[in-house]
Design brief:
single chain, alpha/beta, six-stranded parallel beta sheet
């Protein structure tokens, strides 16, 4: 790619950013789609988030992705926030608008798109979410936003799960999310559920660890999504499949969140063939099946 005065720049702000796959995805999209765009990572220390946003505006950056630990801290520095991102309280994509940037959460829209390619629609679905950290909290908000019938949020510290359930229910005016201790998972009514594993349990090198081991839990799960994508086949996924369910890792979510951000920056629609190419490249890069 030739870089000149017409090159538009996007990037990633986080801390650290050394291992990100985002430049691979976005620079490939720009090359494939013929856009004069360059994507680079920026290491931004936690106490310099505001300076970074102002600097991006001054440097005429077209947009930014935002990763840990800045997804919530960046919000006060934005001129506008998308409705879903505002309710979640976290953004991962900034789009230039007017005198600043508008924030979106394409992590969650990316997860929803990934699920749709696997035949899962959240509307009317009964969902179990494991964990109550930032990712699991966002999933609970997404489920309510998308019209899930009910959501059971399980966490080692039940008070945290109950608090998040209250926040989600208040935000949407629905009593659809229920907080519960992990150890009390047997209290979930009999039925078939979509389960989302939203903790870091099972990440390499602790690949044999799993949040819930009891087999009775997995008999209720028709489909499991682990937001982890390395390893590509977690113990959680193995247990879901062992009990007749389908199981997926977070690699497609990674691809779709990037595609959605790229679409927002460029005002384009990336077709499924290009998205599938990105997914395949990511599989090769991460050795994930």
């Amino acid at each position: 790619m030739r870089i000149d005065g017409r090159t538009r720049v996007c990037g990633l702000m986080g801390y650290p950013v050394e291992h990100t796959l985002s430049p691979l995805i976005h620079n490939m999209l720009a090359e494939d789609l013929g856009h004069h765009l360059l994507y680079v990572p920026f290491s931004v220390e936690p106490d310099r988030v505001g300076e970074a946003v102002k600097g991006a505006r001054a440097l005429n950056l077209m947009g930014l992705n935002v990763t840990v630990p800045h997804k919530s801290a960046v919000i006060p520095w934005l001129v506008e926030v998308d409705e879903l991102a505002e309710k979640i309280g976290a953004v991962n994509t900034l789009v230039r608008c007017g005198d600043g940037y508008k924030g979106y959460n394409t992590d969650m829209t990316g997860l929803q798109s990934a699920m749709r390619t696997d035949g899962i629609e959240l509307s009317g679905e009964s969902v179990v979410v494991l964990g109550a950290g930032g990712a699991a909290r966002a999933v609970a908000f997404l489920c309510a936003h998308a019209g899930a019938r009910e959501v059971w949020l399980l966490n080692r510290t039940p008070e945290r799960a109950v608090q998040i359930a209250r926040e989600v229910n208040d935000a949407f005016g629905r009593d659809c999310v229920h907080g519960l201790a992990l150890a009390a998972h047997e209290e979930i009514p009999k039925g078939q559920y979509l389960a989302v594993q939203g903790t870091s349990v099972g990440l390499y090198p602790h690949t044999e660890e799993v949040v819930i081991r009891e087999e009775g839990f997995y008999e209720k799960i028709h489909t499991g999504y682990d937001l982890i994508y390395r390893p590509g086949d977690t113990r959680f996924m193995q247990l879901v499949r062992a009990h007749g369910g389908k199981a997926y890792n977070g690699l497609k979510m990674l691809a779709y969140q990037a595609v959605h951000a790229y679409e927002l920056w460029n005002g384009v629609k990336v077709d499924e063939a290009e998205t599938n190419r990105i997914i395949q490249i990511l599989r090769e890069e991460t050795n994930v099946i």
